[in-house]
Amino acid sequence: MLFRSPDSYRRVGGYYLTKGDQLAVRGADGRLIPSPESLPAYRRSLALLLRARSIVKVTLEWEVAHPWRGEIVPPQADADDAKTADLERAISAVELRLGDVPQAVERAEMAQRLEPAAVEGYQRLSAAYLAAGRADDAAVALVEGSLVTSDLALRQEVMDLYRSEEHTSEL
């Protein structure tokens, strides 16, 4: 059976995400607005990232079901969770750009649960909540992340969120 590297799919998926971002336009507030030209790149990115995610999932299931010759395989749960969380965050970012906000929120929540010490997880979760119109949940995610990780950038993002005129009335 031929297995392909999920890392290769992840890298190429990231390339297409970047390509889509370069083809998108920026709004007055600096946010990316997908353009008709950027959509094929985002769709390709999503397909590649989902393929990487399925390879990781199948590989993990296979390793559990087929231990090598009765040997005890050392647990790699942390590394596997980190790889899966990275993919879930990337998929969430693409889904946001494609307008699938509920799915993006679900993936961001999954990524944060898989790797609770990752600053990027809280940032992705906050962005997904904001896109879903849930500014209060976005603020909570950032505060929780700043407490869990002690990351000063997350604290700054909380302050920026509260200062933004767009979301002040929602908080």
What features would you describe in this structure?
By secondary structure, the chain is mainly α. It has eight helices and two strands. Strands 1-2 form a two-stranded antiparallel sheet. Strand 1 and strand 2 form a beta hairpin. Helix 6 packs antiparallel against helix 7. It is flat. The chain starts with 5 loop residues before the first helix and ends with a helix. The model has no long low-confidence stretch (mean pLDDT 87).
Strand content: under 5%
Largest sheet: 2 strands, antiparallel
Which parts are unreliable, with pLDDT below 50 for 5 consecutive residues or more? none
- Give me the count of strands: 2
Structure classification: mainly alpha
Q: Please, how many helices?
A: 8
Pattern of helices and strands: HEEHHHHHHH
Amino- and carboxy-terminal Cα gap: 53 Å
* Spatial strand arrangement across the major sheet: 1-2
The shape, in one word, is flat
Determine the fraction of residues in helical runs and give it as a percent range: over 70%
Overall pLDDT confidence: 87
Rg, Cα atoms, Å:
18 Å
Summarize, please.
By secondary structure, this protein is mainly α. It has 8 helices and 2 strands.
Please describe the structure with a list of short key phrases separated by commas or semicolons.
73% helix, mainly alpha, single chain, 171 residues, 8 helices
Question: How is the secondary structure organized here?
Answer:
Layout: H1 6-23, E1 25-26, E2 32-33, H2 39-65, H3 77-97, H4 101-114, H5 119-131, H6 135-149, H7 152-163, H8 165-168
Antiparallel strand pairs: 1-2
Helix pairs in contact: 1-2, 2-3, 3-4, 3-5, 4-5, 5-6, 6-7
